[in-house]
Amino acid sequence: QVYVVFSEELKCWCRAVVESVRCQADGYQLSCFLVDYAKYCSVPSDSIRVLQGAFAKIPHRAKKCRLHCTKPLTLHIDYCENTAKIGPAKRWDTAAIQHFRKLLE
């Protein structure tokens, strides 16, 4: 379900999907995906509202997606044998993410 949350970073109300809820000493903290900005943010529970009327029917500008059959790779360096090989990784490294974003722009 899509809600409306106030993003402190963007200083405006945004449509969002709630990913998870964390209990903290001062209340609940919601991890959200902003469907029009393709950003993740964390907001307090008092900054969320139910999306009403025609606004709920407007299509999202951003969608979560994955690259089909594309796995992250990284450079494995063996200092003892003085070799470097490209091999599988558990996560994409920061340089690869930045390079992909530049390609998209």
TrEMBL record:
Residues 3-68 form the Tudor domain. It is an enzyme of class 3 (hydrolase). This is RNA helicase. It catalyses: ATP + H2O = ADP + phosphate + H(+). GO terms for biological process: germ-line stem cell division. Keywords: ATP-binding, Helicase, Hydrolase, Nucleotide-binding, Repeat. GO terms for molecular function: ATP binding; hydrolase activity; RNA helicase activity. The keyword Metal-binding does not apply. Its EC number is 3.6.4.13. It comes from the Eukaryota.
